[in-house]
Amino acid sequence: MAKGKRLLIGGVIILAALGYMVWGGMQQAIVYFVTPTELKATETSSADKFLRMGGMVVKGSLKRDVQNLTYHFDLTDGAATFPVFFKGIPPDLFVEGKGAVVEGRIGKDGVFQATMIMAKHAEDYSPHTDAKGAAKSFVPAKEYPAK
Amino acid sequence: MEAQNTEPSTATENGGSIRRLIITLLIIGPVLALLAYGFTRDARYITSPLMAKPAVPFTITLFDGKKLSLDDLKGKTVFLNFWASWCPPCRAEARDLEAAWQKVKDQNMVFIGVALQDTDEASREFLKEFDVTYPNGKDESGKIAVEYGTWGIPESFFIDPQGRITYKHVGGIRASVVVAKINEAAKGIVSAQEGKGDYQPVR
Amino acid sequence: MTALIGHSAIVLALLAAVVGIVAPILGARGQRERYFEITFVAILGQFLFVTLAALALVYGLIATDFSIRYVAFNTTRATPIYYRITGLWGALEGSLLLWEWILIIFSGLVAWIYRDRHKELMPWVLLVFSIVSAFFLGVIAFASNPFETISPVPPDGRGLNPLLEDANMMTHPPLLYTGFVGLTVPFAFAIAALIVGKLDEAWIVTTRRWTITAWFFLTAGNLVGAWWSYHVLGWGGYWAWDPVENAAFMPWLPATAFLHSIQVQERRHMLKVWNLSLIMLAFSLTIFGTFLTRSGVLSSIHAFSSGPVGMIFLFFLGFVLLGSFGLLALRADLLKGQPELDSMVSRESAFLLNNIVLVSALFTIFLGTIFPLISEAVAGVQVSVGAPYFNSVTVPLFLFMVFLMGIGPIIAWRRASWDNLKRNFLWPAAASLVFGVALFFWKVREFWPILGFTLLAFVVATIIYDTALALRARKRIAGEGIVRGLITLTRRNQRRYGGLVVHLGVVLIILGIAASMTYSLEREATLDLKQSLNIGEYRIQFEGLKPSRQPTHQRIEGSFRVFHRGEDEGVLSPALKFFPTQQSPIGRAVHQSNYSEDIYLILSGFSDLSSNRATLKVLVRPLVVWMWIGGFVIFFGTLICICPMGKARSQED
Q1: What is the pLDDT of residue C161?
Q2: Which residues of chain C does A132 touch, with a Cβ-Cβ cutoff of 8 Å?
Q3: Is the ipTM of this complex over 0.85?
Q4: C-beta of residue C366 within 8 angstroms of C-beta of residue A21
Q5: Confidence of residue C334 (pLDDT cuts 50, 70, 90)
Q6: What is the mean pLDDT of chain C?
Q7: Which has fewest Cβ within 10 Å: A52, A59, C186, C572?
Q8: Mean pLDDT, residues B37-50
Q9: Omega before C152 cis (within 30°)?
């Protein structure tokens, strides 16, 4: 029976180590999908989470600095709006009055610090697409009509 | 798993097999169930925030060259359908749409078809093939589709005389549903849920 | 006409498959010889009919027979012939047919090669093949028919996804399918052994080469996929832990574990249940992969059409899992009584640990992949799991695996004495430690990279040291020089030295991954004409935009002159391609490689042409090229393992 016990202990140790790694890994990699309304409601509890938020870019709210590649704008779902800051290259279809999905965290100043913007457009209208940064607009673009 | 190698079986031969079988089932079953659960939802699907909201105005050039603007249709009930000639569910519903149109065209109602990601010739051929008589145009830049958050076609919107979207249906739709929903729209009734049929994701 | 021939051939093949399922079952009651002949003919029949169907589809594609829907959607009149043929696996229906075709070729080969051997096992082996084949044929015939016709016949087709028009995309799916199908061979033998109850090592020894071959194709398929992602998708990376990529990678893990643990069973008759479980798991994961890719259950950046096929694959997955593991559970009584581990310090335990690491990696990747599903089912919360999860979880596991790669092939079986350990590992360990310290003083200061590079050095050192000792012995015994000695050693023990070469290849791949993961530079900027941007030792100068008209699309090219340490290295021209049928442009990144780093340019956007201003993203990724070199090394090592080389023959079969 000593053999069985040793196996058991070994198994428990391995599982515990795995569990710890999985838990730790998930902490830093889970992305929660929210709307501006939901985010407004849970602003404090969402503070350290990595979020993906979809909405419409409010007309007239977009301030851009082309040289430094920085963008300030508000995102709305009709009910609530949330300010967003982004540094980088947004996709071509990112414009005021259009849908966009941003990914990032809420900064200390209460502004959503986006690390990525995805434009919602007919070709890949989906906030669930995966994180490949700038590659977003280069995604295999054609769907084969299946049965 | 290694535990099985060395652990002496305490149960009788037969009881051991059955116990192992049950354990196997208990492990595999939930995994399969979880995967099957995946089919009850669509990972790419998001509920449209457009229901009960004012429909975004647009102007479209019809295939006969005329222009049609949604703003001009205030006071009328509008059925808006996105399609493409290469999309099988669109072909499947084409006759239903025309049939519905024939039923309601004398009332204060308008049907608009919007072709997406399609060539002019293919669209025209499609319209001819299915004898479509209501106005159809092409969404040249894809802007209308963006405004309406179209992500799969066919996709249909019902707009009441006040210009609110009352119902949205992703995928193929039947004539009876079109007629029922456009009548609801005429009365300003907003559906609680979107409808779903066979559709083709737009890429 | 072509469509009719193709579809009839599929239906006939399906009938043959049904015969192939029924005959062995009838044969079990007696008259085995006769029924085996029927089974054999059934496999042959499937092979002929499926080949006919596949050729019919290829013919349809080449002849642009647009009355076939599949052809109309995957070629145009303008498509070059090369890409017309690759259209065979350009979309779901054709891919399934290709898979089935490879499967039935493998089945035919197995049936032919072992026709006079393994009298007891073979009917059941062929039964398993026929079941798998019948499943695919059923899907092809009824759910996802590549020979469906359209009417009226369109004047021209829609064409292949432009991203697939790439030479490497041509090789990626067939390689992967060959890997998947290759795993069917050991799986079929394992099931046959379970049914018959002959659970000695025969099935393992017989399928060893098939397993190695399948493993190679899996590896190659994944590598070429990464290569394609890096060179064509134009985002600067090669692996994104996307569900579809994970689906292709996951079978590799139990397959690798299996490849190692069967050696323990061969040598020490241990781990029987474990080995059976591994191969069942590996095979199930190939089906799971297709389910995942085609069901739309998880979202992926890889656009695949969904349809009823996903659900059908899920049913088949359930059938395979319950059937095979159920059988294992029933037969487990026959699998007892193996000796136990003699010592924790032995080759067995190193291999066992390697297995635990690989299966742990599989478990964590699987969990991360389906976590969005779990989260939604259990908590109703929509989430996605990003690449950081996979990186943080797998990096320690894979580094531990690297460590075991150094230990496993060298350490003694049964029980390694202190002397044995000292003799084999003292110098390599010392050398790699010195290497690690040197790296630290040079410039590598972070924990994971320095650990990783030290472990990689350790593996290389053990291989070199061990081979050197063996060479010295050859010199003493036979007076052979280095080259002659290497040849003799390899011929005497192909699997060992082939395996070591494969390990070197894996080391190179991990080297490339580790270096490019940790030391990549990335910058983006909007540049006016003649403006430049500095990154690392490079300066990139913008020299203007150039529009051009290609046969299938419009192209905007940006010219960028690259200076490395002030030296002019020529112009790189990343482009954006505008296809008329697509709304957003497709990028064509360019890069320049040398043995130490790649410089990778992506044109992200541009102003209107007249003002000549472009937004550019630049990446400098060190050592990436070694990943691809590692792939070739693995290929070479695999060849050494499986090619018959005179003497070594006698140990096989």
Answers
A1: 59
A2: 233, 235, 237, 240, 301
A3: no
A4: no
A5: confident
A6: 87
A7: A59
A8: 61
A9: yes
Residue type at C508? L
- Mean pLDDT for B93-104 is 90
Question: Rounded to two decimals, what is the model's pTM?
Answer: 0.80
Question: Averaged over A52-60, what is the pLDDT?
Answer: 81
Who contacts A13 (Cβ-Cβ below 8 Å, separation ≥6)? none
C-alpha dist (Å) from residue C342 to A4, C261, C339, C346: 15, 16, 8, 8
Say whether C344 sits in a helix, a strand or coil.
Answer: coil
Residues 20-79 of A with CB under 8 A from C: 21-22, 24-26, 28-33, 50, 52, 66-67, 69
- Within the 76-95 window of chain A, which residues sit less than 8 Å (CB to CB) from chain C? 88-89, 91-93
CA–CA gap between residue C22 and residue C415 (Å, rounded): 49
DSSP C149: B
- DSSP codes, C79-145: S-HHHHHHGGGSSHHHHHHHHHHHHHHHHHHHHHHTTTS-TTTHHHHHHHHHHHHHHHHHIIIIIS-
Q: Cβ(C601)–Cβ(C628) under 8 Å? A: no
- Which two structure tokens, joined as six digits, stand for C311? 């659900």
Q: Which residue has the tokens 């070629």?
A: C75
H or E segment to which residue C557 belongs = strand C554-564
Q: Is the pLDDT of residue A138 over 50?
A: no
SS3 C174: helix
Q: For residue C604, give the nearest of C569, C639, C574, C579 by alpha carbon.
A: C574
CB contact under 8 A, B23 and C295: no
Measured distance between the N- and C-terminal CA atoms of chain A, rounded to whole angstroms? 58
Say which residue the tokens 């995928």 belong to: B171
B29: Cβ–Cβ under 8 A, 6 or more apart, which residues? none
Whether residue C161 and residue A141 make contact (CB cut-off 8 A), yes or no, is yes
